[in-house]
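Supplementary notes for students who missed Thursday's class. We covered one full example, reproduced here. Read the sequence, then the structure, then the short commentary at the end.
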Amino acid sequence: MTSTTPAPVTAVAAELTPREQAVAARIAAGLSNQAIAEELGVSVNTIKTLASRSFTKLGVHNRVQLANTLHDRSAAETQEPVG
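Structure (token representation):
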């Protein structure tokens, strides 16, 4: 099994626990719940719970919205200030 290197989730650090961040980053990278569970060494039910909590905290309803939210926040953090 190959390990993925998900994008950093620093933009949501204050909103998500470290474990939720790890799961959210992997969801945003396109991994399935099964793949995330295997990579992190936890059950699929644990991944479902962590994903659900992340959706609630970020105000999103699905994996695509979560990925877009993480991408948008990451992009906003990396933009240089104008002026």
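Commentary. DSSP finds four helices and no strands in the chain. Residues 10 and 74 are 8 Å apart (CA to CA). If anything here is unclear, bring it to office hours.
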